[in-house]
């Protein structure tokens, strides 16, 4: 069908290394040719014929990454599987966010006034459907996604997170159930040889050795007897991170780790329950 555009390689690579959030990625469309997956990080279009990733859309950069809450967005695909509408579920006149239309073949994302398609695919079923449950009766399916696509009477497609050596999107597979046979297709297989993207825990363990004292946790360091300003001074003094900017009270820094330009946000606050001062670390990219 289509080749992944060269200019989207970096985006696809970063998607492959994204960690799992509170929600599983969702299968929003499937046919005998393509499958479309949506998650907080964006949209991935997988070519089922050539067995490769063919399109990616960055939802973080257009402020459409929320899958829950007031800023929740909706991703819908037309019946033909050629266009995608991305919009906020709840409209806020005080903080308007545009609706987007993505043309899959042209790989073109643009702002639109169109809110709905005339027709949608009717082959997506939830995991409580009797046909789906019968399909999976002999399968350990706890890590399957909520939706399954019925391609024909004896062919279904599901989305599953297979825990392996990766704890990121490289463990995301499309499972094809076809007349009693099961095959799986790894969506981000092209990036299997890459090292994982550094997590907050790894950064605290390996890349903040200049900070002395404190109790280290997965995403923060807790100090006793220090003010917020003193904790921030401890971070700034002698660190190997390059300062970028301060945004909404959080200082942003950059450092190359495993050949990745990793950006973190750092701030300090007081935990009123423990009276400790917390240095919080967040990976921002």
Quaternary structure of the protein: single chain
Helix and strand string, N-terminal first?
A: HEEEEEEEEEHEEEEHEEHEEEE
Largest sheet entry: 6 strands, antiparallel
How many domains?
A: 2
Tell me what portion of residues adopts beta-strand conformation: 35-45%
Q: Helical segment tally? A: 4
The residue-averaged pLDDT reads 90
How many strand elements?
A: 19
Read across the widest sheet, the strand sequence of neighbours is 14-15-19-18-17-16
Overall outline: elongated
Radius of gyration: 22 Å
Uncertain spans, ≥5 residues at pLDDT below 50?
Answer: none
The helical percent reads 10-25%
List the helices and strands and how they pair.
Blueprint: H1 9-16, E1 26-30, E2 34-39, E3 42-47, E4 52-58, E5 73-77, E6 83-88, E7 99-103, E8 108-112, E9 124-126, H2 130-135, E10 144-152, E11 155-161, E12 172-178, E13 181-186, H3 200-206, E14 215-216, E15 220-223, H4 228-236, E16 242-247, E17 250-257, E18 260-271, E19 276-283
Could you describe the 3D structure shown?
It is a single chain. By secondary structure, the protein is mainly beta. The chain folds into two domains: about 5-190, no CATH class; about 200-285, no CATH class. Helix content is about 10%, strand content about 40%. It has four helices and 19 strands. The strands form four sheets. A six-stranded antiparallel beta sheet has the order 14-15-19-18-17-16. Strand 2 and strand 3 (about 40-45) form a beta hairpin. The longest helix is centred in the last third of the chain and has 9 residues, at about 230-235. It is elongated and about 65 Å long. The model has no long low-confidence stretch (mean pLDDT about 90).
